[in-house]
Structures are given as C-alpha cells and as structure tokens.
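Follow-up to my post from last week.
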Amino acid sequence: MHILIQGGRVIDPAHQFDAVTDVFVAVGRIAGLGQRPAGFKAERVIDASGHIVCPGLIDLCARLREPGLEHKATIASETRAAAAGGITTLVCPPDTDPVIDEPAVVELIRRRAKAAGHARVLTLGALTHRLRGERLAEMAALKEAGCVGVGDGGRPITNTRVLRRALEYAATFDLTVFLTPLDPELSHGLAHEGQVSTRLGLPGILAAAETGIIARDLELIRDIGVRVHFGRLSCARSVELVARAQAEGLPVSADAAIHHLHLTENDLLGFDSECHVRPPLRSQRDRDALRAGVSNGTLGALCSDHQPHESDAKCGPLGDTEPGISGLDTLLGLSLRLARDHGWPLMTLIERLSWGPARILGLPSGHLGVGAPADLCIFDPDASWRLAASHLRSRGQNSPFIGWELQGRVTHTLFDGELVYAYEA
Amino acid sequence: MTTTSIQLDRQGRLLHFLTTEGLSRRHLTEILDTAESLRGVAERRVKKLPTLHGKTVVNLFFEASTRTRTTFELAAKRLSADVLNLNIATSSAVKGESLLDTLRNIEAMQCDMFVVRHEQSGAAEFIARHVKPHIAVLNAGDGRHAHPTQAMLDVFTIRRHKPDFPSLRVAIVGDILHSRVARSLIHALSILGAGEIRVIAPCTLLPAQVESLGVQVFHLPEQGLRDVDVIVMLRLQRERMEGALLPSEQEFFQRYGLTEDRLALAKPDALVMHPGPINRGVEIDSRVADGARSVILEQVTNGIAVRMAIMSITLGNHARPDGEIA
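User reply:
Got it. Predicted complex:
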C-alpha cells in the first residue's frame, strides 16, 4: 500500500525536523519526505493540511488486562483505543496473569496483538520468577522471545540482594531494567501523606516511600552499569535524584504519567475514586516539578499508565476501589493541553511521546527517517473539545478527566504503513 | 463536589450529617439548641416524642459497635421511629455483595434514614451520593475520617458546663492519627470559636501536617495540659503496638495516661472526657475516669439527645417541599 500524506506540518524530533511537507509511505516504511520516491504511486492520499504529522506515540506503560483480567479489557479492545489516540506502540508490563516470566506468555500476547492489528504491543519480561522478588526469571530466554526489557511489574523488589543480582543478570544480557519505585512497607496508604490525607482521614503514602527506593537503586546501579528506567515518578525529590544521577553520567532514565502532571492530592477531596492511583497524586509542588522535569528532559517520556477497570472496581468507598486511570484515550489531548497552557514547543512534547520513549526502549521506530517503520499520528492541533464518557474507546471508562477540555484531535493513525484509524466527525 | 456541599440542600440546610467540617456555626448551634430542648424527654414518664412516627431508621453497621448503635437506636425510638439494625460485618458483605447492592436492597424496603458505620473513610459520603433523594444519611463513623455525632455530643457536653467557647482551651490526647473522633471534634470546636485546640501525642500518633487543621501540637502532656479547660482522652487500640507505633501500653500510660497528677496541671475545674469505651490503665487512670471532673457518662446520656436532634433536623429538612437536593 502506497499512502501519500499531503501538506501537513511534519514534526520529527529525532531529526529536529519541523516543516510543511509531504510524507510518502510504502510497504510499511517511510519511503520519502518531501520528494516522491521513484516508482511511488499513491493508492491513497490523506490531506493533512493544517494538521501535524508526527511519529506514532509510544506509551511506556499500558495495562491491556490480557491475559488474566479479560473482564476489564482485552488486547483487541485496548489497542483499538490506542489507535484512536494516535498511539502505535504500547509497552505491556509483566504483571499479567500468568506473569510474563516465560516465552509462552510473550508469544501469546504477540499473537493476540497481531490478530487485532491495531498497534504494536511490546512486552517487558519479569525480573523475578512470578514477580515474587525471590528467584531470577529466565531473562535471557525472555529477551530471545522478544521482550524489550525486564521490570518489576509494579511490585518493587524488597530484598536488596535479589535486586542486586537481578540488575547484574539483566546487565549481562544488555537488558534495560524498568523499575517502579515505591516501598511496599511504606505504601499501604491511599493518598499522598499530607494535608489532604490528614483531613480526609486516608492512610498516607509519604514521598520517602518513592525517593528512598530510588536512592537505594541508584547506589546499586553505580557499580553495575545497568541501564535503569524509573517509571511513573510522582515526587519533586525523585526528579532531583534522577537529574543528579544523570548529571553524574549514570545510565538512568525516567517517565511520568500524564495524570500526575494535571492532578494533585486536592483532587481527592470528595473521595473521588477516579483519582485513586498508585503512586498517589501528590502536592502542587510535586506536580510542578514533574512538569519541569518533562519540559527539561530529566523525564524523557510521558506515558498513559493506562489501567482500564470495569465500573464496579471504581464504585465504592475509596479504600475499597482499585487504583488506576484509563488513559489511552486522553494521553495526547492532555499532553497538548499542557503544552498549550505552558507554552511548550510542540517539538519537545512530541519528543516525550515518541522519540524519547523509543530511545529508552532502543527501538528503530519513533522517528520519520526514510526506512523507519511507518507508524504515524496525524492530528489537528487547534481542535479543542470537551471529553465525554462516550468518547472513550477503551473498555475502561474510569477517567477523572471526563468533562475536561482537551486539546488536539487525532484524525489519522498509521501503524506499520496501514491506516488503522481515521476520525469521523 | 465536596463532602460539605453534598450534605446541604440549596438553602444550605442539613440533609445528611456526614462531617462537621465546613458547616457553619448556625448549623451546629441549631443542633445544640434542639438537643437541649430534647434533653428533657428522657426524664418524662413517657420517654417518647411523635416526631418520626411512621419513619423507618436503619442502622447499617459494617463495623462492630454496641454503644454507638445502641444510642442511635434509642434516639430513633424516642422519636417514635421504627428501627432496623443490620450488622453487615457479619452478613451479606462477606458473601461478596457490593456496598451498592446492599444499599439498593435496603432502599427497596422503603426506609427513610440510614445510620452508617464503615471502616473506610468516605463510606458515608459514598452512600449519601448513591441513595434515593428522600433518604437521610447519618455518619456514625467512617474509617479515620469523621464521627460527627460524637463531636456534637462532645461540644454539647462542653457547652453545658462551659458555654464561653472563645475562652476555652481544649486538649485532645492520644491516638490522633487514627481518630475520626478527633478530626470531627477539632472541626466542631473551630467552628464554634474555641479559643485554643491542642493535640497531645507522640509523633507516631499524629497525622502529617496536623497543624493545618488549626491545632497547637504538643508532644508531652506536661506541657500540653497546662491550664486547659477540657481534656478529651482518646481510646488507644491494642493493634497500635503491632504497627510499631508504640512500644507498649505501659509506656504509653506512663507518658500519656491521664493520672491525677497530670490532671492537676489543667484548670481546677477542667472537664475530663472520653468517647468510650475506655481502657482503664492505658489512656486513663480509674481514679480520674470515675473522679469528680469526669463527664464521661454524661457524654453517653447527652449522645441520645444530640442524635435525636440530628435525626429530627435532617429528616425535617427532607420533608420540606422546597428541600431540593443541592
């Protein structure tokens, strides 16, 4: 299939390219930019005038609920939502059921994703067997099976000896380790430990539950030389720790979830279970530091931290509900709103959503160089619209952003050179 | 929508009673004055008023409690309501029925008021948001969040002895961290203009940034009890030793227990209060609990009048034709 994307403003952060030009897509690849490649015959022309054409978004953390929790969502349902959100690559953490700690699970997910065909689903293998933090998982086999990294799957390893060995073993096979820093012993709570948790009488999770683990991990990494990525940071002090480690030259990267850049502990007032997330929404100061971290690049990626739920999981007193937000549908719209409100260059924002995460993962995609996989997102940057529940394509309707004004509307998504989504008004 | 706004109608009248936080002095004074007028009922030969005749009050207790449930039951019966006691802790919740399902089922029995106790903070508010509009919800304790009727009976008891709130110095002693009683009482006292509210506890039993509630923090009773007018002792749960919050009951009693020596630091006419049930020899010495300054049993008696007042006010507001939900 030859597709011509005509007259759009093409933004490609990897090449610092920003100009109005045509994009030529042929047999799943970017075949040319500006100049029609020899023998190119457009079978389809997409008029992108007035729109932005950029690499398809790469989401570092999306729970698709399959295998294991298919009553919440499936790979097919969520990759379809991703396509509508301009996301072409999703990274699935290993805490599925069964856990991604053997090649068969990797294969199962790949097969289901391929059958659905809406987006690329990459997997992180488990660092430890069953994610129990006791025995190492067969990381070499997982890598061979296609895992793009290994991780703790949201269950931090408390045993420092096991963690050290796991990091060393991952380094042996040149695997990036994806960690979610939150001390289990300090994180039984429901809200950021501060004024709001005190007023609402909600058990708190103090910032040190996150920063203490990061500090420990950074000390371990120092001598191992393993690439580590910290996912879903929530505290100002965490950003400082990561920035300092980066300045010292440690191979450390980090991301934040988009909801942590918009919401704070105050959004929990009224016990809103849609704002029940882990790590918890923190103070305004923390939120501002995360925004600055994304803006200056200390946090190299913005992700959805997508966690779709059935409505029952969110219906009850806060402490009886499950944490997480359904985020695929709103990742771009919330990000663009942030860029608009804070005057961030579109180049920077798109970088954090595509080339940034691609580099963290070591992928050949995330850019628009000739020969790159034709994963593209085309959006109207000027459209602003109010989010209604009916707009959510994810099976999970759990979003605190319903009623919010979002910026930008995805009009087309190309995955592997195929048009997987087109907006119909 | 905040908890404060959901409990009021458009005219600012109480439809539910979920928390004292954010209410006005007018709301609290109305409750206290009504309770004062109802206090005499118990001394009559026939201890009943027809106010809630034909109404059904359901005590929905998801957490075990005898004392609080009993006083709510008595309050409802003295107002001639029919009372249904449901201890969900031991019934359907265990079988996996969701809170909303439980609620819908009881609603279907044509009830008018839910008195709710639940281990989760925010549970009463959740129920208030989901019940049919004609039902009033009273919070009988939700997690660590609020226990507003207890706070009202506490300020009612204080007002009967010491009506001049601006000159009052009140100390709340013990496990502030886990206490819904402390949170509700602090708000109620602030709203009524109490001169000074102190909390006295070791660092492990104080919530983060507790000063933000408008209290003075003391870590030792020797400092905090000086010249106070009212001492409110909180119950210490045994499981606090396991959470590494305290080394032992003995050490807690030695450092924080209300003894006659410590009571002597307060004003000579200071009141000693406790929401009950008391742990003698853990947070309070028997001689103090049973002593001349103790108003602990008076609190229990007042609890009935205060709960009668809150029941008649909230159901009364529901009955008004213009009592639309805000």
